[in-house]
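Inverse folding, one chain.
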């Protein structure tokens, strides 16, 4: 059964919004017009199709956005969808700073939403980059040679935890800073903990 009714939790979210209130309301009406189920997930209006996440409404300081969970699988010849972060592999956002921009993009948004529903119906999955495809910083490889138990502990972490460490350790431009980050987190790795545990 299609449930495109308004969720009172989302009413509350919009009523409490200090910024982007009119934009949220317009985005909401467009998405609900596409017959998705409205929920509140991660404290944000989230829209699902048969319990699968399709889009979520987000608010930031500089813009609000409609984010597609599997944006990478959508046909986007004009490059409208923006990766929310440099390491994002699946999501794609359409960003707005006014209700007028949302109105102008309504037809395009609906096309993306209906395509996202078809992606879900087809059971398509995003092929995420494997942890092995990330370049491990030289400083970490040196530590592995120095302390074999660190390498063993690192390899025992889940792929997501390994990736988080690799990205965190690779960020600094200077080798000394990368070394300091590795030193700081060595015990955490040896304890089998992730970067944010």
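Residues assigned per position:
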């Amino acid at each position: 059964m299609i449930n495109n009714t308004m969720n009172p939790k989302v009413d509350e979210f919009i009523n409490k919004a200090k910024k982007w209130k009119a934009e949220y309301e317009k985005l909401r009406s467009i998405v609900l017009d596409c017959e998705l189920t409205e929920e509140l997930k991660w404290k944000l209006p989230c829209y699902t199709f048969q319990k699968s996440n399709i889009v979520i409404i987000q608010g930031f300081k500089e813009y609000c956005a409609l984010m597609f969970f599997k944006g990478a699988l959508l046909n986007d010849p004009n490059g409208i969808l923006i990766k929310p972060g440099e390491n994002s592999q699946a999501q794609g956002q359409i960003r707005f700073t006014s209700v007028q921009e949302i109105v102008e993009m309504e037809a395009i948004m609906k096309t993306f939403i209906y395509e996202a529903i078809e992606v879900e119906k087809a059971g398509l999955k995003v092929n995420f980059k494997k942890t092995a495809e990330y370049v491990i910083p030289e400083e970490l490889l040196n530590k592995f040679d120095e302390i074999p138990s660190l390498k063993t502990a690192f390899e025992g972490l889940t792929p997501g935890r390994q990736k988080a460490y690799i990205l965190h350790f690779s960020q600094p431009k200077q080798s000394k800073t990368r070394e300091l980050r590795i030193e700081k987190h060595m015990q955490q790795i040896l304890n089998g903990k992730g970067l944010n545990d």
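The chain has a mean pLDDT of 90. The helical segments are 8-16, 21-32, 99-121, 138-146, 148-155, 159-170, 175-190.
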